Amino acid sequence: MPYLIDGHNLIPKIPGLSLAAPDDEMQLVELLQEFCRRSRKQAEIYFDNAPPGQPRLRGFGSVKARFVQAGQTADAALRSRLLRLGGAARNWTVVSSDQQVLTAAHAARAQTLTSEAFAGQVWQVLRQADRREGDQKDVAPTPEEVDEWLELFGDDPQG
């Protein structure tokens, strides 16, 4: 099932990425390329405030990045994409924590994931793949990684 992703909504949920970084969009695209390659998925990611002259659609393997020009929002572009998908929207998963985007996804009968939940899935897929491929030997997370994940997902194991 492919993903429709609210890019600027996801960036702050990924440890190590920041909306303040000048190349935050490309950092996320690169991370998602690896995630999609390893999980054999496809993704369309939407970003607000595209610089003038930049192509609106750029392909990066299994990831398509859509840069929304001034005057429109990524949220509106996502909702428009869901409408164009029609009944096929049920075959897509929308990733956002924006309530309006999630409401539109539910109305289109698409699956939904919060940005926080998706960030956890990305991290899990990349960690498991690294272990399988031998890229990383059972290395414990750094204290900073633990703090970031506890802040993101909470420290109560019971919920």
Beta fraction of the residues? 15-25%
What's the CATH C level?
A: Alpha Beta
Radius of gyration: 16 Å
Low-confidence stretches: none
Mean pLDDT: 87
Topology:
Layout (H helix, E strand, L loop, with lengths): L2 E4 H4 L13 H16 L3 E5 L9 E4 L2 E5 L6 H12 L7 E3 L3 H9 L3 E3 L1 H19 L9 H11 L6
Parallel strand pairs: 1-2, 1-5, 2-4, 5-6
Antiparallel strand pairs: 3-4
Explain this structure.
- With 159 residues, this protein is α/β, with parallel strands linked by helices.
- The chain has a single domain (3-153), classed as Rossmann fold (3-Layer(aba) Sandwich).
- The protein has six helices and six strands; from the N terminus they run βααβββαβαβαα.
- It has helices at residues 7-10, 24-39, 74-85, 99-107, 115-133, 143-153, and strands spanning 3-6, 43-47, 57-60, 63-67, 93-95, 111-113.
- It is globular, with a radius of gyration of 16 Å.
List keywords for this structure.
159 residues, Rossmann fold, alpha/beta, 15% strand, globular, 6 strands
Short summary:
The chain is an alpha/beta fold and 159 residues long. 45% of the residues lie in helices and 15% in strands.
